[in-house]
Amino acid sequence: MTAPRPDYETLRTHLDTTQRLGRLLYASPHPAACDELIGALKAALRAAQGLYRPTATGCLTHPAGPVEPEPQPGDTRCLLCNGRRRGTRPREAR
Ligand SMILES: [Zn+2]
């Protein structure tokens, strides 16, 4: 089972926390405050990464499109984009 996808609100909350902790660290530099900020930054990073899930094609235009079965040098995993670039269209796209 995969972890649930963080929502934008989760990211926003972590970013708000990092801002608050950054101000505190600036006002009162302390190793523990720095560690706390770093922890909050890592949580924000995880939330940001969770907003994007890679697709089989890795293509933003065709995330659910067919996957290139035999990629050539310079190809992507997206069969539709590769076909467009080569000037051919795969059967699935017609
Ligand atoms: Zn594509």
Architecture overview:
It is a single chain. This protein has about 90 residues and is mainly α. It has two domains: about 10-50; about 55-94, no CATH class. The protein has three helices and no strands. It has helices at about 10-25, 30-50, 80-85. Helix 1 runs antiparallel to helix 2. The mean pLDDT is about 90. Bound molecules: zinc ion.
Helix content: 40-55%
Principal-axis shape equals: elongated
Number of strands: 0
Give the biggest sheet: none
For this entry, give a set of tags:
binds zinc ion; mainly alpha; 94 residues; 51% helix; 2 domains
Q: Layout of helices and strands, plus pairs?
A:
Blueprint (H helix, E strand, L loop, with lengths): L7 H20 L3 H20 L28 H8 L8
The structure holds zinc ion (ZN).
The gist of it:
The chain is mainly alpha-helical. Helices cover 51% and strands 0% of the residues. It binds zinc ion.
